Amino acid sequence: MATIRNLKIKTSTCKRIEKELHSYEKEVEREAAKTAAMKDKGADPYDLKQQENVLGESRMMIPDCHKRLEAALAELKSTLAELEETDEKEGPEIEDAKKTVAGLEKQFHTEDA
Q1: How far apart are CA 93 and CA 41, in angstroms?
Q2: How far apart are CA 98 and CA 77, in angstroms?
Q3: Are the C-beta atoms of residues 65 and 21 closer than 8 Å to each other?
Q4: How far apart are CA 10 and CA 96, in angstroms?
Q5: What is the residue range of the signal peptide feature (predicted)?
Q6: Are 4 and 83 in contact (CB under 8 A)?
Q7: What phi and psi, each to the nearest 5 degrees, are found at residue 3?
């Protein structure tokens, strides 16, 4: 049985994972710039290889974050649907959850295009 408390938790989870995803995307940009700068300066091959490993690890986190976000979004939608079936269709928590779902779906559609 879905409750408002579960809805709040799932909404917060989606928001947290979304922030995490944006953080990893920024980290990849930073690390890519750092790697490019090291190549331009002719850095030590060992240091360059280590930096490329750091960049690779950051890049691997993005698909993982996407999967977790998609799963969390599906759970949030499910909980929201259950609450709407029990005639709980209004309230700040429900509005927040709906905004979160709409924002994440919009983000996924712009990334796919």
Answers
A1: 52
A2: 9
A3: yes
A4: 11
A5: none
A6: yes
A7: -130, 165
Q: Which CATH number goes with the domain that contains 94?
A: 1.20.58.90
For the four alpha carbons of 38, 39, 43 and 46, in that order, the dihedral sign comes to positive
87 three-class SS: coil
- Cα 55 to Cα 49: distance, rounded to the nearest angstrom: 10
Q: Which two tokens stand for residue 42?
A: 């002719």
Taking only the tens of pLDDT, the chain with its 113 residues reads 568 889 999 999 999 999 999 999 999 999 999 999 998 998 898 999 999 999 999 999 999 999 999 999 999 999 988 888 887 677 888 889 889 998 998 887 776 54
The CA distance from 17 to 92, in Å, is 21
Provide the domain limits for residue 77. 4-112
Retrieve residue 15's tokens.
């928001």
What whole-number distance in Å separates Cα of residue 79 and Cα of residue 74? 9
Tokens of 46: 């060992």
Continuous segment of H or E residues that includes residue 27: helix 4-41
